[in-house]
Amino acid sequence: MTIKIRYFASLRERLGRSEDTVDFYEALTVSDVWYRANADQPLPVNVLASVNMDYVALDSVVQDDDEVAFFPPVTGG
Amino acid sequence: MTIKIRYFASLRERLGRSEDTVDFYEALTVSDVWYRANADQPLPVNVLASVNMDYVALDSVVQDDDEVAFFPPVTGG
Amino acid sequence: MAVKVCTGAFEPWQEIQDYQNAQISGGFGATTVFIGTMRDFNDGDDVKSMMLEHYPGMTEKQLQNIVYAARQQWSIIDALVVHRVGTIMPNDAIVLIAVWSAHRGAAFDANRYIIEALKTTAPFWKKEQLTTKQARWVSKNTDGYTAG
Amino acid sequence: MAVKVCTGAFEPWQEIQDYQNAQISGGFGATTVFIGTMRDFNDGDDVKSMMLEHYPGMTEKQLQNIVYAARQQWSIIDALVVHRVGTIMPNDAIVLIAVWSAHRGAAFDANRYIIEALKTTAPFWKKEQLTTKQARWVSKNTDGYTAG
């Protein structure tokens, strides 16, 4: 199964990339997805996460083909 | 001494006139001014009054040449 | 700061644009606008037109007092108030309030203060001409905080 | 109801006028507008320009959710939300929210709800380019109810 990860704004700049792809064979939470792609990096404080463009809690479980995104607090408007 | 009185909106229509002039020689309140001009008519409930275009209480005292106005609750906007 | 009483129809968006271009050089981060528009029904009846009476002179004085009071309470950069009088048709703009401020909290609060104060203290009176040929004075304004 | 993400500058008053003419046939007694405009200073520094990043797709989805939630809470006739992305210069409009309703209470409350929800949940991020050549991400939005 495959998950696409997207990063935005200051988090994208700090990681130096805007996307990752993670392959997996067992149940993963959003938080697990982060560590698969960023084993050496703790989840940032205040990070927001979405699955398929809806906000989710970090312990929600992902499905095959989901698009997971991580980003800092939003500052629009 | 002379006071000009103005009436507006439904009050003007009911009285059938938009202005009165009252001559007087003693201290008068706004309420007294009403009765000088409308001896047979009680002051309407909820009437608003102004002197020289500022809202006043009915017991405030008028001066020579003041413009006193009586009108119903306002309904602009 | 400007308050205007109009005897003819006005285009609210054009009024705001023109005022902003002419009067405001920048520095504002937030602009709020309220526009009151005449509807073709009221209290369950069809309204054909409306006559808006006012007290010339006192109207402007009270509107200026209201804007001044808003400036005392909130940090605002500029404000424009335009109010129509005379014969008004459905879908015509009756009142326009625009407030420019550095921050949105002040812009919203001052705008709402101005419209509520206008509705309770500015000397305007509406007389509705119904489609049944009857005419009637509007007897009171609704409370803008609780009304839906 | 419409939500739009713009990559170029937009004229807020013209946008509202065009939308109102095309989409709204009447029945509204109250219109409220909020416009957020870029200022040339922030946190004590001079800002030369701003880059507004967003999450295409999620942005529109969240804005639609916000407008839908406003419709659930208040009786509104229509709403328009326009938000700029890309490079923005001082005095450019960043965001426009317009709400049409029968009554002013709903028009004010829904408008303010939409801007507060947008600022906390719509996936936009601002990066400021200072006149000193430094660039920095805006770290958080202020609270619009208490901020001046």
UniProtKB/TrEMBL annotation, chains A, B:
GO annotation terms (biological process): Mo-molybdopterin cofactor biosynthetic process
Keyword Transcription: no
CDD domains linked: Ubl_MoaD
Gene3D superfamilies linked: 3.10.20.30
Record SUPFAM superfamilies: MoaD/ThiS (SSF54285)
Alphabetical UniProt keywords: Nucleotide-binding
InterPro entries the UniProt entry points to: Beta-grasp_dom_sf, MOCS2A, Mopterin_synth/thiamin_S_b, ThiS/MoaD-like
One GO CC term, this protein: molybdopterin adenylyltransferase complex
MF GO annotations: nucleotide binding
Keyword Nucleotide-binding tagged: yes
Cited Pfam families: ThiS (PF02597)
Family assignment from sequence similarity: Belongs to the MoaD family.
Protein name in the entry: Molybdopterin synthase sulfur carrier subunit
Lineage: Bacteria, Pseudomonadati, Pseudomonadota, Gammaproteobacteria, Methylococcales
Gene transcribed to yield this protein: moaD
Automatic annotation (TrEMBL), chains C, D:
Enzyme class label: transferase
This protein's UniProt keywords: Molybdenum cofactor biosynthesis
InterPro entries associated with the record: MoaE_sf, Mopterin_biosynth_MoaE
Aminoacyl-tRNA synthetase in keyword set: no
Pfam families linked: MoaE
Catalytic activity: 2 [molybdopterin-synthase sulfur-carrier protein]-C-terminal-Gly-aminoethanethioate + cyclic pyranopterin phosphate + H2O = molybdopterin + 2 [molybdopterin-synthase sulfur-carrier protein]-C-terminal Gly-Gly + 2 H(+)
Listed GO MF terms: molybdopterin synthase activity
EC number(s) per entry: 2.8.1.12
One GO process term, biological-process aspect: Mo-molybdopterin cofactor biosynthetic process
Protein's UniProt keywords contain Translocase: no
Subunit comment: Heterotetramer of 2 MoaD subunits and 2 MoaE subunits. Also stable as homodimer. The enzyme changes between these two forms during catalysis.
Family: Belongs to the MoaE family.
Name this polypeptide is given: Molybdopterin synthase catalytic subunit
Source organism of the structure: Crenothrix polyspora
Lineage: Bacteria, Pseudomonadati, Pseudomonadota, Gammaproteobacteria, Methylococcales
